[in-house]
Amino acid sequence: MNRVSVKRAGGVAVVRLNRPEKMNAVDFEMIDAVIAVAEDLAADPALRAVVLTGEGRAFCAGLDVANFSALALGDPEGLIMPRSHGAANRFQQFSLAWRALPVPVIAALHGVAFGAGLQLAAGADLRIAAPGTRLSIMEMKWGLVPDMGGMVTLPEILRADHLRRMTWTAEEVSAEEALQIGLVTEIAEDPLARAMALAQVIAGKSPSAIRAAKRLIEVACTAPEAEVLERESREQTDLIGKPDQMEVIAANMQGRAPRFD
């Protein structure tokens, strides 16, 4: 069985973890499949947005326990330390590939998002959770620390004291608490439907402006003020008067939906 499935609806790609009998627990095959899908999507100029979800009763229950033995009995230095994707290793790229995708990524969460699953969700731009979803930075339960890109993404989402508490205790939080502390964007009875609705709204906007906005927000979250201001001006300059922006103006003037190539 393929560990990941992809379906297209116009410019929106629905990426689904596909190991429901294991609550989409992450094994090495899934890591490689997720990275491959993200890389394929990143190269698609027609892509407008991505929805990331899980098949069955959970988004993702974390790393497959069977893999802990392979890590503990193997060569962690040789497995973890080599950089295979720029500054990241294979495990970190599992979540960071979605952060690097040039279009918005929305994670639709249900059941549980534990450990590797939570770090995968943290690589998305937005997280929509079903009521009753449980979330945890689970690694401390196994005597480990988050090492799948979470220490890049989670500090941008969570206040430092919440990040410390969740990392040190491995406690679960409910969707409702996750909303309060900023770990999820919103709660919806049907998170996949809500994520699809948001993705369709995004897909109807100027594709070049959406991609520029994602690049700009990434810089705005991490860079010094002068660099942010320079990038803001550059992205705007590169949009003004170009075909996508002219189509938006024409559509607004004519009272119709814009049409992009």
Automatic annotation (TrEMBL):
Q: Which GO terms describe its molecular function?
A: isomerase activity
Pfam families in UniProt: ECH_1
Read off the InterPro entries from this record: ClpP/crotonase-like_dom_sf, Ech1-like, Enoyl-CoA_hydra/iso, Enoyl-CoA_hydra_C
Pathway the protein takes part in: Lipid metabolism; fatty acid beta-oxidation
UniProt KW Lyase keyword? no
List GO BP terms, alphabetically: fatty acid beta-oxidation
Query: Keyword annotations for this protein?
Result: Fatty acid metabolism, Isomerase, Lipid metabolism
Q: Which domain of life does the UniProt lineage start with?
A: Bacteria
- Isomerase is among the record's keywords: yes
Among PANTHER family, the record links this protein to: DELTA(3,5)-DELTA(2,4)-DIENOYL-COA ISOMERASE, MITOCHONDRIAL (PTHR43149:SF1), ENOYL-COA HYDRATASE (PTHR43149)
Family from the record = Belongs to the enoyl-CoA hydratase/isomerase family.
Name the chain's protein: Enoyl-CoA hydratase/carnithine racemase
Q: What is the lineage of its organism?
A: Bacteria, Pseudomonadati, Pseudomonadota, Alphaproteobacteria, Rhodobacterales
